[in-house]
Write a structure and sequence with these properties.
This protein has about 200 residues and is of the alpha+beta class. It contains 2 helices and 8 strands, in the order H-H-E-E-E-E-E-E-E-E. The N and C termini lie far apart (about 85 Å).
């Protein structure tokens, strides 16, 4: 029995070697593997180039930037030189020289406000495009400022994206502040630091 098993094993080995002589499995497998590897590599390289092209096509570009800053350093006591009324008062402006329809303008504003009154006050922050008129109002926020002795000094932060409606030259954006209609008799003041920026971006 052991001899028969040994003979069968050798015979099987001979058969396998004879088959291998007729067809080089190692060579075939290697070529097939290389073909698959090359196809996979070519596909990956094509996809990488395609992705990079699409990414480049979809990236945005800064076209123009304008800004205004004032009073970057504030000291105590808080300044009372900019009293607010119930009418829009210009805090800062930013002018873009040449805007293109379809572009967007990223607007960022910052100023501070102090309420020296015994009751809370409403403060309106607005942005106008072109000139200060109701038809050109593009942004408005309302902040309630506590009475004196509480949280009566705070900051007003504005962020807005304006889609340019038409090609234009020298477009000015106005950042304004004012007291609410029911705060007319209150003593409310704006102060720095003040920053207003406008960045035109082509998509």
């Amino acid at each position: 029995m052991p001899k028969y098993y040994y003979y069968y094993k050798n015979e099987h080995k001979v058969v396998m070697e004879d088959d291998a002589a007729e067809f080089d499995y190692n060579k075939h497998d290697k070529k097939d593997h290389c073909d698959k590897h090359d196809k996979k590599h070519d596909k990956k390289e094509h996809c990488d180039k395609h992705d990079k092209k699409d990414h480049k096509k979809e990236s945005s570009k800064l076209v123009e930037f304008a800004y205004e800053t004032s009073d970057p350093i504030t000291e105590l006591p808080l300044p009372l030189t900019f009293p607010l009324s119930t009418q829009p008062q210009v805090i800062a402006t930013a002018t873009l020289k040449d805007v293109e329809k379809g572009n967007v303008v990223w607007l960022n504003g910052l100023y501070h406000v102090n309420n020296n009154s015994p009751e809370f006050a409403d403060v309106f922050t607005r942005i106008y495009r072109g000139n200060i008129s109701p038809a050109n109002l593009i942004y408005q926020s309302i902040v309630e400022v506590d009475a004196e002795g509480n949280d009566d000094a705070t900051e007003s932060v504005t962020q807005f994206v304006d889609v340019v409606p038409t090609d234009a030259k020298n477009v000015t954006y106005y950042l304004t502040a004012q007291k609410g209609p029911f705060s007319d008799d209150l003593s409310v003041f704006a102060y720095g630091p003040i920053t207003f920026t406008a960045a035109e971006i082509k998509q």
